[in-house]
Amino acid sequence: MKKGIKIVSLLLVFLMAFASLAGCGKTDSTINPSEGKYKDGVYEGKGAGNGGDIVLQVTVENGDIAGIDVIEHKETEVLSDAAFDKVITAVLDNKSTNVDVVTGASFTSRGIIAALKDALIKAGGTDEIFSKDPKINVSNKETELEQTYDVVVIGGGGAGLSAAVEAQAAGANVVLLEKMSSLGGNTLVSGGGLNVPGTDQQKALGVEDSVETFIEDTMKGGDNINNKELVTVMAENALSTAKWLIDTIKVEFIPDRLQQFGGHSVPRALIAKGNHGTDLIQKLETYANDLGVVFKMETKADELIVGDNNKIVGVKATNASGQEITFNANKGVIIASGGFGANLDMRKKYNPEIDEKYKTTDVAGTTGDGIVMAENIGADLMHMEHIQTYPTCNPKTGIISYVANSRFDGSILLNQEGNRFVEEMDRRDVISKAILDQTNREAYLVWGQEVESIGNMTELHKDEYNNLEKLDLIYKADTIEELAEHFDINIDTFKATIEKYNEYAENGNDEDFNRRGSFFPIEKGPFYIQKVAPAVHHTMGGIVVNKEAKVLDNDGNIIPGLFAAGEVTGGIHGGNRLGGNAVTDVIVFGRIAGENVVK
Ligand code: ADP
User: Does residue 366 line the site of ligand 1, with CB under 6 A?
Assistant: First the structure.
């Protein structure tokens, strides 16, 4: 099935199939006269996916599966598209419940199959019947094991897609290799924030900003060890890049909203529609597709091919069908494979402190492959020990919590004993370390309506909120006492802490931690309490590049034919990346890599 078909269009197909069946009048369960596997009829089934239950409606006709309708699901958009597309198509084509999972979407794939079986059991299906179904592999197969393009891009996140678009737009023919079944990488699951000085939003809100201030904030936030040349390129190109995203790629940003992430001296982050990276990735994908970029999904780059004069002339890759494919690159290769937050061994190799006690917010594909491939052919690496943790994640999964962004609107952090222990607006690393020093390595965010009414985080991120509630990680109550009771926190200390904080808020002076930013009391119910823990979020280190996104070797020489952009590179964020700087970095340098590979 062709990549890119969305559930909406799939649904149409299935609904049409369903409508024609309904026209046959077979809506009730009746024993099938031809002794098929199942009783004819329409059945609903439920299976657990990544974000909650997946509900399918399965139509059985002539004793076998004839139609599948997705009634409901809460899987991540884009990330789960391929699973719905491929698994359902394979089930229908092969009349089999024994379909393989899709790479990178295994939970969703299993949830779909579980829902299918749940429905079919109601139609008389049994494990014995299911076990006779043929095993179906949903992976793509290549006909040519050696293929030649002008440019090979490794990785389909924000950097890879931007690079592919610019290279193809400049006349090259581009192939993009993505090892997962869906595009997007960490960019997709990000909050979609992009720091840009000089936007219309800043002008409308009367925010004074400049490229210089952006550079200063970024350098200071990175402990001044950042590569200032790269920071300057990012800052100088941020505005034109935002305009490109808006005018050319048609990304939609919330018109009247700017966010001020920690470490920035003014609000300067544009926020993509929906407050996540989905719009960004979908629009880049659509644009790249229209231009003619060739996508090879579930195709993992393994090795760079070195030609004459040490020029990089291609990539060896393996796809999910186990085929080994050579992709030759006439002009060059761009590595945009992201960081290594999801690679525990690599994390421990470079920074033993960032061990198994940290889960990660990162997608499964961020395993540092590009860094290893580049190092193997002599590329230089830098800042590998600088690994950022994000303080307020789901303690059970490591997934970043957007509901917890109530912190930026003024919620406070308490420990199990009911005491505050850190300034809530401090740097990510400082708060993360402080939380790990507390009982159970966890903390609680607490807020009331004064804060909730600013960003409406529990409404804006309703699905996440419901999921957190199910996991007993968030609790809403009419009184402060109930919050403490629910999570077994000492009520007296808890109340005393909040009373003291309310006094500070009234006087505008936090005598204990000198809180910056939004500062409100916690007096109006209903109140919220959310359990949080830190998780690995970004790897600042990586491949050494110059300002043209060209990869350098250990002696500072350019490795011909090799470019890198995005989280796979090192230096730009120094010892600590500021919020909203990743997306600016990956799009600015992705474009630069794409432009330069063609020159
Ligand atoms: P960036 O923000 O720098 O663009 P992302 O994390 O958004 O980084 O995207 C990186 C993408 O690269 C992910 O989709 C990931 O699955 C993909 N990737 C990682 N390693 C490989 C590899 N060896 N071959 C192909 N794709 C890869």
Answer: yes
Q: Output the CA angle 236-241-247, nearest 5 degrees.
A: 145
Reported as a single tens digit per residue, the pLDDT across 34-79 is: 468 999 999 999 999 887 899 999 999 999 999 999 999 988 888 8
H runs (alpha helix) in 508-539: none
pLDDT, tens digit, for every residue of 104-124? Answer: 788 899 999 999 999 999 999
Ligand 1 proximity of 474 Cβ (cutoff 6 Å): no
Chain position carrying tokens 């979407």: 105
C-alpha of residue 342 to centroid of ligand 1, in Å: 11
pLDDT tens, position by position, 378-426: 999 999 999 999 999 999 999 999 999 999 889 999 999 999 999 998 8
Ligand 1 in reach of 112 Cβ (< 6 A):
no
- Quick: pLDDT tens for 299-310: 999 999 999 999
- Share the mean pLDDT of the chain: 92
Catalytic site residue 407? no
Q: Which of 27, 304, 2, 52 is nearest to 153 (CA)?
A: 304
Label residue 82 left, alpha or beta by phi (over 0 means left) and psi (-120 to 50 means alpha): alpha
Distance CA 229, CA 238 (A): 14
Q: State if residue 341 touches ligand 1 by the CB under 6 angstroms criterion.
A: no
Q: In which band, very low, low, confident or very high, does the pLDDT at 20 lie, cut at 50, 70 and 90?
A: very low
Q: Which atom of ligand 1 is nearest to the CA of 302?
A: 23
> Residue 535 is which amino acid?
A
Whether 180 is in the pocket of ligand 1, judged by its Cβ within 6 Å, is yes
CA distance 184 to 74: 18
Q: Residue 396: what are its φ and ψ, rounded to 5°?
A: -85, -35
Ligand 1 in contact with 570 (CB < 6 A)?
no
How much distance in Å is there from the Cα of 367 to the middle of ligand 1? 8
**Within 10 Å of residue 129's Cβ, how many Cβ atoms?**
16
Report, as an integer, the average pLDDT of 546-554.
98
Q: Is the pTM of this model over 0.90?
A: no
Q: Of ligand 1's atoms, which has the minimum distance to the CA of residue 590? A: 4
- DSSP code at position 246: H
- C-alpha torsion 396→400→402→403, nearest 10: 20
Rounded to whole angstroms, how far apart are CA atoms 354 and 436? 12
Please tell me the predicted confidence (pLDDT) of residue 35: 61
Q: Please give the distance, rounded to the nearest whole angstrom, from the Cα atom of residue 478 to the centre of ligand 1.
A: 45
How many CB atoms sit inside 10 A of residue 79's CB?
25
Residue 317 contacts residue 331 (beta carbons within 8 Å): no
Task: Dihedral sign for Cα 477, 478, 479, 481, please.
Answer: negative
For residue 363, report the distance from its CA to the centre of ligand 1, in Å: 9
Which atom of ligand 1 has the smallest separation from the CA of 183? Answer: 14
Q: How far apart are CA 57 and CA 63, in angstroms?
A: 16
